[in-house]
Amino acid sequence: MKPLLLALPGAEALAASLARSMDCEPGALTLHRFPDGENCPQILPEPRARDVVLVAALDHPDDKLLPLYLSACVARELGARRIVLVLPYLPYMRQDAVFQPGQGITARHFARLLSSCCDALVTVDPHLHRILSLDEVYSVASEVVPAAPAIAQWIRQNVAQPVVVGPDSESAQWAAHVAGLAGCPYTVLSKVRSGDREVAVSLPPAQILAGRTPVLVDDIVSTARTMVAAAGQLQQVGAAAPVCIAVHALFAGDALSVLEQAGVAAVVSCNTVPHMSNAIDLMPALAVAALRMLAR
User: Is residue 2 annotated as a catalytic residue, yes or no?
Assistant: First the structure.
């Protein structure tokens, strides 16, 4: 039978987009909330002897993790053959080391919990830094879908004379990959962070920016302070107003308005997290990856 495609609340648009690229049956996943706040998932039709693709948008993950975990467990209890999680944004990857006394590596604990309720995981460009591969922390099969090809295509179609700018050293490989696919030059700035919302970046080389439109590209934009600082440095050397592209558009609090007020030309994101800035569709690539996992 066709795989059963289920969406957690908030991921309905993601699932609908996935369904256009997959031969699957959309199912109904509802969460009954008891007066004390507990959730009870209900899945119809029941997935007995069927593969299940479970889609979730995991921005603000603490509110969504338990419903995701319980839904996957209920699918298993109801006889699902295999459960593939499609999580376009995979949270809890930043704490990949112990930075302060008394802390732990929460990326590992989060991975252990998700691995316990599924057979495979598909995501887009998780924040891999000290953890080099999801296989280091996830015990189930996983596939990472790169956003760079779709971002590069969008740049080619929408930006004249682009130059890709990585806002910090962690974005160096990112910037090089996107620029290579887009057929344009790139540069990478350096960053010093003194707090969650205090960021300073280096001045970019003016010669590489001359006559070009800077395209600031980053994987996760949360407070947007890194992009704001980078945009300010671009202005200092007389560059054109930058186009800002985020893979995962978290935009916490006033982040979007602060970025828009920084004199940027446009703010664009991939649709890994539903947001008004979504303009780059990664669901077809995620659908292909999910089908590969089901075929294993």
Answer: no
HSE on the CB side for 180, CA within 13 Å?
A: 7
Query: Considering 64, 82, 127, 191, which one is annotated as catalytic?
Result: 191
Record the tokens describing residue 78, joined without a space: 């109801």
Residue 168 DSSP label: S
Alpha helices, H only, the chain:
12-19, 61-77, 106-115, 148-158, 172-182, 206-209, 225-236, 255-260, 283-294
Side by side, the strands of the sheet bearing 4-7 are 25-26, 4-7, 51-55, 82-87, 120-124, 141-145
Q: pLDDT digit of tens for each residue in the chain (296 aa)? A: 899 999 999 999 999 999 999 999 999 999 999 999 999 999 999 999 999 999 999 999 999 999 999 999 999 999 999 999 999 999 999 888 989 999 999 999 999 999 999 999 999 999 888 889 999 999 999 999 999 999 999 999 999 999 999 988 777 878 899 999 999 999 988 755 544 445 445 566 778 888 999 999 999 999 999 899 889 888 888 899 999 999 999 999 999 999 999 999 999 999 999 999 999 999 999 999 999 999 98
Q: Strand 39-44 and strand 141-145: pairing?
A: unpaired
Bridge-based pairing state of the strands 213-221 and 162-166: parallel
CA atoms within 13 A on the CB side of 187: 20
Peptide bond into 146 cis (omega under 30): no
Cβ-contact 217, 171 below 8 angstroms: yes
Q: Residue 220 and residue 140: Cα distance in Å, rounded?
A: 24
